[in-house]
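pls ignore typos typing on phone
magnesium ion + seq
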Amino acid sequence: MNYFKELNLPQNLLENLSLLGFEQMTPIQQKAIPYIIEGKDIIAKAKTGSGKTLAFSLPLVLKIEPKQKQPQALIIAPTRELSQQIAGELKNLSRYKPDTKIVTLYGGEPLSPQATSLESGADIVVGTPGRLLDHISRGTIDLSNIKTLIVDEADRMLDMGFDRDILKIVSNLPQNRQNLLFSATYPNNIEKLASKILKNPINIEIKDDKKDNNIEEIAFQTNNKDRTLIDIIQFFQPNIALIFCATKVKTVELSDMLHNKGFDIATLNGDLEQYQREEMLIQFSNGSLPIMVATDLAARGLDINGIDIVINYDIPMKPQEYIHRIGRTARAEAKGLAISICDSYDKEKLKSIRPSIDIKDAKELTPDRNFFLQGKYQTLSIDGGKKKKLRAGDILGTLCKEIGLDAKDIGKINISDRYSFVAIDKSVIKKAYDGLKNGKIKKRKFRVWWL
Ligand code: ADP
Ligand code: MG
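k done
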């Protein structure tokens, strides 16, 4: 079976898949979906960017019976950003069952609105372990009707630190349920750990085919990492670059350094407020800030279209983190480049993680000093979103018809529950900002920020 239409799915689900651009199943989807529909527990392993989210989301959405008051499925993920992304994919997929309610639970936001959402009836809950435990201990989540548990990035979630939280959450679930673990990497002892959660699981593994490895990996040795980082950007000239470093402090230092050299930079680390994390990610993915400097917070699961280079400014501690970091490029069928920077100390670490990698001398780079990676757009944020019934079309209409912008100068529009973000070509951003600030959308006044 190769195509979704060969599965025995309702016609309106097939039509929705097709609208979303999904026709042919990826290998993990081909193998896992039939077992999941059958109700089996599985441990699934397939490379980064191979469509694991849809592999677990499709059978889930298929089974959900909306409006039952208590949630029927729980998805646990390691970060807020990944939880949001999974929830977004579930929302798109469940459009054909419009009553399906998906609730995200993660930290950095107040508990009580989340509790209210749960109370008014959630079908699928997606969240991070800490916040899920908060709701469990306050009694604001009823898990008695959970039929499916999904652990994404399962090896990370069962890794030291997270494992106890996961087991605590699991101990609050009904015994009789389906369990699904997904990741691109697993430690050797996964069966032992997994046996605490799953029953007679089926192991599904899609082996990496060396021939269709879409990520080219290179490394450069240097005694000046900052200089080499700039050389790499000015030599390879990416459209969108993601840079990883080891600490939160370093993400800030590197961002400042690159910003001072004239690059447009987003920073992502766990010290930022939740709203800042969201604004950074939106500006990175909408072409306003085409370079993002991040900690391993961004290493797992994030699916951002168009990242063509991942740079390891620091070499990660563990081989699996290397795999997940570089897996932020070459999503689906795309190609990508992963470049590691090492000094004489890092070199051994890199060699042990990636024995066959070609380490070149950074002096071989011939950068173009006139290349500066800058955003085509800047972003305006509006203090209204889905809750105020604001839609992309409303914002587009105001900008074009009332403010007089050309549609070609308007980029991505992201609408969250309470805010909207619109990317506007730099050349007309002032006009858009003044227009929105002084005018109205759908006859209502909104506050507007120029990020
Ligand atoms: P993984 O979890 O395996 O790292 P994702 O689930 O994030 O990968 O999917 C990577 C990308 O592939 C996403 O942008 C997703 O929309 C796309 N994708 C998934 N399944 C298909 C499919 N069957 N056909 C086309 N694109 C797909
Ligand atoms: Mg994933």
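The longest strand covers residues 215-221. Residues 402 and 435 are 8 Å apart (CA to CA). more later
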